[in-house]
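User: My collaborator sent over this chain with a note saying "see what the structure looks like." That's all I know about it. Can you take a look?
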Amino acid sequence: MGEASRVTGRFRGTFDVLHSLTYFAPETEAALTDAGLRPGRMTYFAGRAAPMGAVSAGVVAATFYNFNPELVARYIPRAWTLATPDRIIEARFEAVDATLIRLLGKDTLDSEEVAEAAELARAATGGCRVDGRPLYAGHADLDWPSEPHLVLWHAITLLREHRGDGHIAALVLNGLGGLDALVTHTATGKGFQAAAAKASRGWSDEQWDAAAEALREKGVLDAEGGLTEAGNDLRERVEAATNAASTGPWEHLGEEKTKRLHELCGPLSRQAVEAGAFPANVFSTGR
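Assistant: Without extra context I'll predict from the sequence alone. Here is the result:
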């Protein structure tokens, strides 16, 4: 279906904004530290991993994929000794509620458009498959919230983690480990800036440079760190495989409703960005 393919390719610029903004919101750290976690990176790792239960650092590193496992191990499993996964999940939804109210306002969140978007997004999740998608599976086992804006956020989260698990499968298939995936994605100019990627994912300059050198030797990167023709082909194969593994929800929802959901979420995403959802100097302009 044409619309399904188009939406999977545009997911990052529209739907993912409404999910990922919570990782940059002060409300998230406040709620999760109130639940018992330590401020900083622990709130991210534990907050996103909690739906899988009190899993090991290895499981978190494997499912998050492009983070330095040494960084993950500084916070997991210690986080589970400070707060239970159930309490962390509860706090996470509290943070989402507060964040969306601040960025979008009560009038917007109480609107018919948000209620309609929530209904459509939840319906789309009926087309998600759990097979081979551990991070999605953990989130899919959670109870649905009742407020429409939280239903919308949870549905988009399910769609995002479903797509993310499929993306990891595509990376594995194409021989890109976590750091290689991060370096090559940064080279596309559509993700993090290099400095932000290294800082947020916990990779040193030495580790980054070693990975980049290995990719140059393979003909994936050129001397300036940009993608070669072979590198572009590799990233295109990854994205094509990711999109192919992510069309299920949109085929399930149908072309007309998929288009409508995209129309509803676009203005919400733009409003959130204009309200300062993301800090400057983190993402490349191609985001």
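A starting point for your reply to your collaborator: The chain has a mean pLDDT of 94.
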